[in-house]
Specification:
Layout (H helix, E strand, L loop, with lengths): L10 E5 L26 H14 L3 E5 L9 H10 L3 E6 L6 H10 L3 E5 L5 H8 L4 H14 L4 E7 L7 H10 L4 E6 L4 H5 L1 H4 L3 H17 L5 E5 L19 E4 L4 E3 L13 E2 L5 H7 L1 H5 L8 H4 L4 H4 L4 H8 L15 H13 L21
Parallel strand pairs: 1-2, 1-8, 2-3, 3-4, 4-5, 5-6, 6-7
Antiparallel strand pairs: 8-9, 9-10
Helix pairs in contact: 1-2, 2-3
The structure holds iron/sulfur cluster (SF4) and FE2/S2 (inorganic) cluster (FES).
Amino acid sequence: MSEAGPGLPIGILAELTHRCTLQCAYCSNPLELLKADKELGTAEWRSIFEQAADLGILQVHLSGGEPILRPDLAELVGVLASRGLYSNLITAGVGLDETLTARLAAAGLDHVQISFQGARPETTEAIGRLRGSHEKKLAAARAVRAAGLPLTVNAPIHRRNIEEVELFIDLALELGAERLEIANVQYYGWALLNRPALMPPREAVERQIGIVEAARAALRGVLAIDFVAPDYYASFPKACMGGWARDAFMITPDGTAMPCHAAASIPGLRFDNAARLPLTEIWNRSPAFEAYRGTGWMNERCRGCERRDIDFGGCRCQAMALTGDPTETDPACSLSPLHAHVLALAESDAASAEATIHPRRIGGARAGELTR
Ligand code: SF4
Ligand code: FES
């Protein structure tokens, strides 16, 4: 942290619930998902959002799990709108019908992001494990556009759908989306557990990058295409969360305030709860927020590096998962001595004949419950 203390946060990712209509194996939620009885109530979320506005936060991303399963969603959107905060609904779209979309739009919702597990119905249904889900998502996307809301199509990419990138572009155009996010899966939580079944081969990743670059040039001014690179094949790491507790943080369904979605995977961090401690206190003093804020925690490789204020040393949770040390350079970085090892891991996963997956479910992965 600088001597002047942390700057002001800009955004919060509010995970309203871990409940979900789908069971995607690429989910970045933790393996220990919270049941409904652990979720914060409406009054607690209202208070958090009021405090967020007081703190100067500009954007709240309403996520999960599936946030539309919360019956109070429109009320919470209304609180955000009344305080001038930009609200973005991150949904899988199943159940987002015209009536709910109209209610959310009337409450002041600003933007909707709908994930598609595949560009083909059979892919969406196989990955999300819900028959009829693709049709429901199409209907949701049309309802969003009919309500006059801007739409982002989110395409989480892995080995099972990487050959559908061109079709995702067609789908986003057909639905009138403003933005398409081609987001290579980040391996946390369920995705890390399922990595051998999800990691794409390098050649497919390279083909995908070529398709995205060509489409970006051809569709300039028509469709914005964001690209989240696959960490394991990258040369430099992503600036995870824009830097640890630098301008954004997240709150889990039970109110735990964390610098990022996988922070609980780092042993020894102490988290505060936003239902019990003021957000300002948490932002300024929470031990978990302080742990890797700024550059003081960095090893010499990162501290002396010209990219340290670009990627902030990469992702602490990925360093933990891949090296066992959260203060290590993220091994997605080509300057890390472990970079070649990570690449080899990716290549061996991608070549793995292992095609079984653990479906995401509350209660954790079940031994013996593997599906193809
Ligand atoms: Fe980023 Fe550290 Fe790699 Fe430099 S050495 S590019 S700061 S992760
Ligand atoms: Fe925790 Fe990247 S997910 S720092």
